[in-house]
């Protein structure tokens, strides 16, 4: 029985190219062919899927360890993007209202543009007219 020489794990563009060439194999076989395995003392080959998948993520340029906005608490940060919900509503979340220091009961006048919505906060004096 001939011993297979272990290759150095591929990274970057060479990893992406090799994975595309191996599209007929399952993910474990791809990882092994790209060098992401170890051989135990007993001669058993073990595929290291975590290292393989992390290398693919890095090769694609995806940043998973981006800086998180931390204010000492959990929760979401404002992304400044919203989507129309299935019921047709637009929901402006608490992250925005907190940032604007809005309080329950604050009222706004809505004016519509071609592709924008303008909110004008009404003063308490305007409401008492």
From TrEMBL:
Domain SpoVT-AbrB: 79-124
Gene Ontology molecular function, alphabetical: DNA-binding transcription repressor activity; transcription cis-regulatory region binding
Taxonomic lineage: Bacteria, Bacillati, Cyanobacteriota, Cyanophyceae, Leptolyngbyales
Keyword Transmembrane: no
Protein name, UniProt field: Transcriptional regulator AbrB
Keyword terms: DNA-binding
One GO CC term on file: protein-DNA complex
Keyword 4Fe-4S: no
InterPro entries, A to Z: AbrB-like, SpoVT-AbrB_dom
Any Pfam family hit: AbrB-like
Top-level taxon of origin: Bacteria
């Amino acid at each position: 029985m001939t011993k297979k020489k272990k290759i150095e794990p591929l990274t970057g563009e060479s990893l992406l190219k090799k994975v595309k060439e191996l599209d007929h194999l399952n993910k474990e076989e791809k990882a092994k062919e790209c060098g992401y395995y170890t051989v135990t003392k007993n001669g058993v080959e073990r595929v290291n899927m975590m290292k393989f998948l992390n290398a693919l993520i890095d090769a694609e340029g995806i940043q998973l360890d981006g800086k998180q906005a931390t204010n000492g608490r959990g929760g979401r940060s404002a992304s400044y993007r919203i989507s129309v919900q299935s019921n047709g509503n637009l929901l402006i979340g608490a992250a925005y209202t907190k940032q604007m220091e809005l309080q329950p009961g604050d009222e706004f006048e809505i004016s519509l543009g071609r592709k924008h919505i303008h909110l004008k906060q009404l003063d308490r004096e305007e409401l008492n007219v």
